[in-house]
Specification:
heterotrimer; A mainly alpha; B mainly alpha; C alpha/beta; A: mainly alpha; MetI-like fold; 2 domains; two-stranded antiparallel sheet; 15 helices; 1% strand; B: mainly alpha; 2 strands
Chain lengths: 279, 292, 418
């Protein structure tokens, strides 16, 4: 479709403007992470070039974040939790999705509807009863306790079901004629085709778990188990906030989901695309 | 459909169902029950107090409605607009898409901390910018009339990238040949959007509407991190009021009651959305012929 | 695929065992504490663990300590034996049944005679001792001598009998601002409330006008419908309108402004003492709390952290012994030394006042604790009071009509008390 040069220019202008708005807070955080507390406050107002560009740039904050605040442990912990969540989560949800998408059984519609509704449940309202249940299961202060509640997700299941519904029947039928078992169907045929939706689900679960705050706060009690968002709030003490260090910590904690997301976003979009369009 | 032995599907969904049952459904029921079963007896007392003696509840309801009546359409329109923008075949559009998604990778708490500082009345960066252009400082978070719009700004900024992807996926599923024939018929871009694009994306639009409504009615992080429901209760939404009731001054029954009301509201709004989006004129859409 | 799965499963299992393996033998007692206090408690606890290897204590620090305590003690978990209790929460936790009654241990492992009466005051719930004070908190006035001198002002001598008045602070602040920031665009201010809009600090204003923090804990109207409260709120708004004080959203910002050398005065607690050395190029002086010219009533907010025993602990007696150790025994001395805090122990306070060579800030603080302290209202409904009053001051700070804000607070309190 031919497009006039003027139209292209307008499009680019819009894109740049919006991108600036989207990215500005991150840039401000990054710039603040390179300065001292006093410098941040000296230049907040009035607004000048120095509000963004540091006078004395220093990596001291990043050093402090790891050396004085022990940020490395929470990062490892959170990475471990996220990978386990993603691995088990995708498995559990995709297996269930195969049943919903490709098999008929009594009560299917009802159970599916209930599952979809579960993602409308506000976490804060169930956090205390959830805590009680976790306590009775003796899962407090364990990795299992942090991961288990988040594994099954209505949203992820929905994505898988939509995707599986799209898989051409012929392929499956041909395999069955060839004598394929259910396990073979799932692992050797369906999963390999599901690259895009696996990426989407994985990313959603990873980022969701990485950014989750209230549950890890309540469950991961001992210092060795602390996760990253909880650790971030430790920068607020009674005696004032260590702002510069906090900005550095924010950058460190944002970099991992960002660096995972950026290269994979094409797959993310493809994974969401399947099946959500059919009129 | 695959033909399998009877227990097989149940086995396959068992793990997911058990997890959801134990960690979502049961806590929810326990929580909802907490509003009508107190000290060993069923009672409507909590709801009675809530509906008839609790001016804060009603004010909070007003704030929630006021916020969402604006927020939900704004987010939907902006996300759709962004998706349309990013759907063009432009060099480097992928990079822009990426930048639009960055707010999604930052946690809600952090987003709010940053926006709290940007829109602070004194020493806020935005006010600083306004001043350097000779414009007066605004109250923003400290102004009881502006605070709620600040929340609209913050949560739109944080959420549109996420919703944009869903809309984008819906757009990508539409065959461009339709647009060509529409252009031949002399169709304006706006008409094209309303009569062709949107109807073909109905499923996507409905999904985003429902998910977005739910997320927004339940939102409370900005209230907790920045405004604490103020100034003068102007940002005191139902969810925040419920949070305060359970975590701050220990009134779990009231908290459960408010959450029940919220969930009923969500169910009603979603039902309304389904109704409005029902397939009225399938024939008209089918004529367009969505091929994939 | 199968191999990967089994590897994953094993990894998961291993990771669950990980924390258990990390635990040092059997740790019979756990102490939940607020983040930021590691130096004091770690040092004192280390000593306890040396003396009592049969009952070692581990301390867990959280900045969101209240939420975790609500979740854990709310379900009656015996996870934590010893809990940190901010003084106003003593009544709240007592009401909810979170704290163990310490009366049975008084006379054996607990000795209440060593503590200052004013601090012991808020350690009781329903007539029973439920906590012991670990410090005596107090706030005083800090000022940036260098900045004030820059404006050509020389502060007169301030003594307890002749304190600086709020009105003088206002006047000096305006002169300083005129001198260093005449166009009011460099971001300077006059008086920073280090805990701006939080009731703990704001109580100083109405109590300095002779009013009480709380008269009737069932109904706020008798407290708020007084001249003192109304005038205090109006005065605060006056300071804001004049640009003397900046009621930023986050109290931390106010504090940071003073620390960046852009503020003349600050009302702050002793916890800032250690941070004062961070201010470059400026001399910071600490002095007695200010008063209002017409009232001359010094009313410094005081409060302290306390330590209590969980009602669900399975080691109550040992835990009580630890609490005494850290609040009034050898652990206490270690704690005070490590944190430079104010002791709640009588003997320490007397020694401090008598010691000519003690740090002048410590002496001022000790004097204020003894003569100018006004504690927060002691009521089991403190959390409700605090929630409502914080909102009141936030509304006042954002410019709302004082009478409207007052009525809103009274109404809110009544609703929450239903």
């Amino acid at each position: 479709m031919k497009r006039s040069g003027a139209k292209t220019a307008v499009l680019y202008a819009l894109l740049v403007l919006i991108a600036m708005v989207m990215v500005f807070p991150l840039i401000y955080s990054f710039s603040s992470s390179l300065r001292t507390n006093e410098e941040i406050f000296r230049y907040i107002s009035p607004v000048s070039v120095h509000t963004i560009i540091p006078v004395h740039a220093t990596f001291e904050n990043y050093v402090r974040v790891f050396r004085d605040y022990g940020f490395l442990q929470p990062i490892w912990n959170t990475l471990a939790v996220c990978f386990l969540s993603v691995g088990f989560g995708c498995l559990i949800n995709s297996v269930a999705a195969m049943a919903f998408a490709m098999m008929d059984f009594k009560g299917k519609k009802l159970i599916y509807s209930v599952i979809l509704i579960t993602f409308m449940i506000p976490f804060e309202s169930i956090s205390l009863p959830m805590y009680r249940i976790t306590y009775h299961l003796h899962l407090l202060n364990t990795f299992t306790g942090i991961i288990l509640p988040g594994l099954a997700s209505g949203m992820v299941l929905f994505l898988f079901v939509q995707f599986f519904k799209d898989i051409p029947k012929e392929i499956l039928e041909a395999a069955i004629v060839d004598g394929a078992s259910l396990r073979h169907l799932f692992f050797k045929i369906i999963l390999p085709m599901s690259g895009a939706v696996l990426v989407t689900s994985a990313l959603m679960q990873f980022i969701g778990q990485w950014n989750s705050y209230l549950w890890p706060l309540l469950v991961a009690q001992s210092k060795s188990l602390r996760l990253i968002q909880t650790r971030l709030t430790d920068f607020n003490t009674e005696e004032g906030t260590e702002w510069a260090a906090k900005y550095a910590a924010i950058m460190v904690s944002a970099i991992i989901p960002l660096s995972l997301f950026l290269p994979l976003q094409k797959y993310y979009i493809a994974g969401v695309t399947s099946g959500s369009v059919k009129g | 459909m695959l033909r399998v032995k009877k227990p097989v599907p149940y086995l396959m969904i068992s793990v997911a169902c058990i997890l959801l049952l134990v960690f979502r459904v049961i806590p929810l029921c326990s929580s909802l029950l907490g509003s009508i079963y107190i000290n060993g007896a069923f009672t409507w007392d909590t709801f009675d107090k809530l509906f008839f003696h609790d001016a804060i509840f009603w004010k909070s309801m007003g704030v929630t409605l006021r916020l969402n009546v604006v927020l939900i359409p704004v987010q939907l329109v902006v996300s759709l607009a962004l998706a349309l923008l990013v759907n063009h075949e432009l060099k480097g559009v992928g990079a822009f898409r990426t930048m639009f998604m960055t707010p999604f990778s930052i946690s809600g708490v952090v987003n709010c901390l940053i926006w709290g500082m940007l829109l602070a009345k004194n020493n806020g960066v935005v006010n600083g910018l306004l001043n350097s252009f000779g414009l007066p400082s605004q109250g923003f978070w400290s102004d009881k009339n502006q605070a709620i719009w600040c929340i609209v700004a913050e949560s739109t900024w944080a959420g549109t990238g996420y919703w944009m992807i869903f809309f984008l996926s819906g757009l990508k599923g539409i065959d461009s040949s339709i647009y060509e024939s529409a252009a031949l018929d002399g169709c304006t871009p706006f008409r094209r959007l309303v009569s062709i694009t949107l109807p073909l994306m109905k499923r996507t639009v409905l999904f985003v509407m429902v998910a977005n409504t739910t997320a927004n009615l339940l939102m409370f992080t900005p209230m907790k991190t920045i405004t604490n429901g103020g100034p003068m209760g102007s940002t005191n939404t139902l969810m925040y009021e419920a949070y305060k009731s359970s975590f701050q001054f220990n009134k779990p029954a009231r908290s459960s009651a408010i959450v029940t009301v919220l969930l009923v509201m969500i169910a009603l709004v979603c039902a309304l959305q389904f109704f409005l989006m029902r397939d009225r004129d399938e024939a008209r859409v089918k004529k367009g012929g969505a091929a994939k | 695929m199968k191999k990967a799965l089994s590897l994953l499963l094993t990894l998961c299992l291993l990771l669950t065992l990980f924390p258990a393996a990390l635990a040092e033998g059997a740790t019979p007692m756990k102490f939940i504490q607020i983040a930021g206090k590691e130096p004091g408690y770690d040092a004192a606890t280390a000593r306890w663990n040396e003396l009592h290897p049969e009952a070692p204590v581990t301390v867990d620090y959280y900045s969101s300590v209240y939420e975790v305590i609500e979740a854990s003690l709310g379900i009656g978990s015996p996870e934590y034996d010893i809990i940190a209790i901010d003084s106003p929460k003593v009544g709240d936790y007592g009401l909810k049944g979170y704290t163990a009654d310490l009366d049975p241990y008084v006379g054996s492992v607990i000795d209440t005679s060593v503590y200052l009466d004013s601090t012991l005051n808020y350690c009781y719930y329903d007539g029973h001792l439920t906590a012991l004070p670990i410090t005596a908190g107090i706030s005083f006035l800090y000022y940036n001598k260098t900045l004030i001198e820059q404006a050509g002002i020389e502060l007169r001598e301030i003594t307890p009998e002749n304190r600086l008045t709020f009105e003088e602070i206002e006047e000096i602040s305006l002169k300083v601002l005129d001198a260093v920031d005449p166009n009011r665009d460099q971001g300077y201010s006059g008086l920073a409330f280090s805990q701006a809009n939080l009731i703990y600090q704001m109580l100083q204003l109405p109590t300095s006008m002779g009013e009480k923090g709380l008269v009737d804990d069932q109904d706020l109207s008798s407290t708020l419908h007084t001249d003192g409260w109304r005038n205090a709120a109006l005065y605060y708004q006056k300071l804001i309108d004049e640009g003397v004080t900046d009621p930023s959203l986050d109290n931390a910002l106010n504090f940071e402004k003073f620390m960046s050398g852009k503020c003349a005065f600050m009302l702050g607690t002793i916890s800032f003492l250690s941070m004062v050395s961070r201010v470059q190029d400026s001399e910071i002086v600490i002095t007695y709390n200010p008063v209002f010219a017409d009232y001359s009533i010094p009313a410094a907010p005081t409060g302290s952290w306390c330590v209590g025993v969980s009602a669900f602990s399975q080691n109550k007696e040992k835990a009580a012994e630890y609490v005494q150790f850290i609040c009034g025994g050898e652990g206490h001395d270690i704690y005070i030394q490590a944190t430079n805090g104010f002791s709640a122990v009588k003997a320490d306070a007397e020694a401090m006042l008598a010691d000519e060579n003690a740090d002048y800030a410590m002496r001022i603080g000790t004097y204020e604790v003894a003569h100018a302290a006004v504690s927060r209202p002691v009521t089991p409904y403190y959390t409700t009071y605090e929630t409502v009053m914080n909102e009141f001051w936030r509304n006042v700070a954002s410019g709302a009509d004082v009478d409207e804000a007052t009525e809103a607070a009274i109404e809110a309190y009544a609703i929450y008390m239903q």
